Amino acid sequence: MQIATRQSGVATIVDVKGDIDLYNSPEMRKVILEELRDKRTARLVINLTQVRYIDSSGVASLVEGLKTSKTLGSRFMLFGLSPAAREVLELSRLIRVFEVFDSEDLALKAQ
Amino acid sequence: MDSGIKLVLPSDPRYLSVVRGAVERFAALLEFGEEDCRWITLAVHEALTNVMRHAYHDRHDQPIEIFLRERDGGFEVLMVDHGQGVRPEQLSGRALEDVKPGGLGTHMIREIMDEMDYAPLEGRNELRLWKKRADKKAGE
Known about the structure:
The complex is a heterodimer.
Chain A: E1 2-8, E2 11-20, H1 25-38, E3 43-54, H2 56-72, E4 75-79, H3 83-91, E5 99-101, H4 104-109
Parallel strand pairs in A: 2-3, 3-4, 4-5
Antiparallel strand pairs in A: 1-2
Helix pairs in contact in A: 1-2
Chain B: E1 4-10, H1 16-29, H2 34-55, E2 63-71, E3 74-81, H3 104-112, E4 115-121, E5 124-132
Antiparallel strand pairs in B: 1-2, 2-3, 3-5, 4-5
Helix pairs in contact in B: 1-2, 2-3
């Protein structure tokens, strides 16, 4: 897995590439929580376009990010879910709790 | 054990992707559909991460054996570890109404597989999973 961050206005976009599983989800969790807690990002947007696999530990990291963002009053968004990633979020019945967008543009423009 | 394959690996998460690859291809070999291959792979992956995290408490050097075979028109997985066992009732999965991280893996396994049997035995734990293959259409 590769992970990188970039800015777009007030938003920070986290680009994730590869599989997210128990081996590397701690790294994604660390980046997400640093952006929210330490950098106080107002809008954190997770780009999952190049993620073809995510397991329950990856989903748990996203849930932790979502809960942290709510506590801090920031936004937490996902976009570009592959069919496999969407299936896992649906199976865990968590797809409804996230703000999910089809594209980066839609996520950044969302009110 | 009749025809099938056996994987032996240490409890190191870096091998998870290797096991996923083997399981998905074995399911395809047994003529499961593409979607079912993905689901079975996820279920086995989640069972394996449970062993790494809960039986071996994130130690990376402990032995895990995984047997894959065809049984009764379905895919059977037997996973054996020598770590700390859990009470079978702890594998019931949690209610998902409470949105929180953790506890999702067992729910996923139960949703995906048709059978899940766990046995904490003397010095070893055995988890057996089975999923029936969807009936083929006539003429296939």
